[in-house]
What does this fold into?
Amino acid sequence: DAGVIQSPRHEVTEMGQEVTLRCKPISGHNSLFWYRQTMMRGLELLIYFNNNVPIDDSGMPEDRFSAKMPNASFSTLKIQPSEPRDSAVYFCASSPSGDNQPQHFGDGTRLSIL
Amino acid sequence: RKEVEQDPGPFNVPEGATVAFNCTYSNSASQSFFWYRQDCRKEPKLLMSVYSSGNEDGRFTAQLNRASQYISLLIRDSKLSDSATYLCVRGEYGNKLVFGAGTILRVKS
It folds into this structure.
């Protein structure tokens, strides 16, 4: 079975540019999560969706970040404009709906903003 | 106080050793707990769930102590391939997870 699929795997761009990260959750999983991981701050939850609806976006650092889930099989995380401090690994994860469900992570997108 | 606290390590142990990690959490209402493993430059992967009094899977044993609000992970007969960062995770309302910063394990021959 296919796991969570993220693209691109790596992105290097100059500050000020728009960055779009993509995620396809595991088929049948109703919940989708976007995380950011850095050495300094560890793994941070940015936003999560249940049944395509954003439930908690309190982790989104600022208005430059936005996320959408137009259907059950696709989500995007967009940064506009990007800044060097946004450099991190961004993970997407999905899980079945309901309490006490573990999450399954994609390979991540390694983002570098120059 | 961090929601999930772990000793960052690193724990340096020889092959075959038994090693244990502890993790404390601050939300007594948490119902679910997990241990994830993360290899260098890879994604976190579920190692095992800890739901009630504990869980065992081969060389790995996880224990939960609700009264003291901590969980532990015991690894017996350590292998070189066990070298990784181990993340302690607690579940929140719905299916939101809160991750600890991780404990680094290095198993040496």
Observations:
- The mean pLDDT of chain B is 91.
